[in-house]
Amino acid sequence: MHADATPPPVPAAPSGDGPDRPARGRWPVAAWALWDWGSAAFNAVITTFVFTRWLTSDAFVDPAVVAAGGDPLEAALAEHSTWLGWGLTAAGVLIALLAPLAGTRADGSGRRRRGLAVQTAATVALCAAMVLVRPDPDALTWNLLLGIALLATANLTFELASVHYNALLPRVATPATLGRISGLGWGAGYLGGIVLLLVLFVGFINPEVGWFGVTGEDGWNIRIAVLLSALWFGAFAVPVLLAVPDPPATGAARRRPGVAEAYRRIVADVRDLWRTSRGTVLFLLASAVYRDGLAGVFTFGAVIASGTFGFSASEVVVFAIAANVVAGIATLLAGLLDDRVGPRALIVASLVGLVVAGVATFALADGGRTVFWVCGLALCVFVGPAQSASRSLLTRVAPPGRESQIFGLYATTGRAASFLAPLAFSTFVAVAGSQRWGILGLVLVIAIGLGALLPLRLPLPRPAAERA
Q1: Are the C-beta atoms of 310 and 368 separated by less than 8 Å?
Q2: Which one has a higher pLDDT value, 48 or 131?
Q3: Cβ–Cβ under 8 Å, residues 451 and 282
Q4: How far apart are CA 50 and CA 37, in angstroms?
């Protein structure tokens, strides 16, 4: 894999002096980052630690099968997990098809905030509707399928909202502050998820009788947690819509293209991007691989903690909280480094750190829980910076006025590669007959992405420190 021998000139970014300058002051930056803080309700509560785990638990299995236990219960849980997988796969296909379309149409009309508002509102409404899902013994399958449908659709709307949100980064950052502001948002997302998880865990999920008398009867502890998460996301999504302006319209060039025209424009723009900035296209592909490896670290982290290192359910939650705190702080600090050394160097260093920490986790696994605490938290140090710097880098290489489209392609390529980490993890476990080897599967995916990134020459400006 190789890139252009001579990178094209870097398009001029907003300088702060023209009509397309970023919004001034700290409030627009804080308002933009608050969307990340609020969206952690979806990432941490809905898709990772609470709602999705509840759907795939024995709460939605026939009580007679639960009482029997053994193979019948295991088969039922596996079937439900399969249904969940198919639902999320369908959502992933739709995201791959619709994300670049949504980005192109938003760029064409100049109305990124409207797209962000519509898709965020849809996500919040879908999350709120999850309160209707209940473990009713007379309608377990219906409620399970309803929960999966709501979750899959919310994944779609959330990813489309993220396309517009990421594309607003140049509206609050200058070329010299892209890294630190991207890191601020990503770090705020980690920390916001922890704050909300702690509130919900203490107030509703853990105690037998929670705040306001809420109990686990009929799943109300989970249902209330999901409803409050929707309200949390909705509340913190409002500031960015009020404080961060859209790019200024430029007359006839700013119109919302039709669906067919938008897809034709996407094909033409990708061809043009391949001719003029091949490194950008190759970065989209390389990042899709290593980003799936990063996602796999969190997706399978709890599984490895329980199955390989013997963590109990409560210990997994404690580790998850610690992991997100570490990732959040590391991402905030790495954002400052991004603007000094450049996002590419930060991504490479983070991926190397992930490979080393992953191999150490595998090699020292016989050391037990202490090894996982040390090596697992070391992994978390590098995950957030790699994610944040990837967003910063893509913002720097995106042609002005096409940020939404580029982030749409970013979402599409990410979804196209989303099978890699699960496939590598499952294959290594199946071949070796031990879950421990799944760690190397995840490391392999990250290493392949790193190998694809290293030879690329990207049309990036010099780091801010060099320009000073």
Answers
A1: yes
A2: 131
A3: no
A4: 18
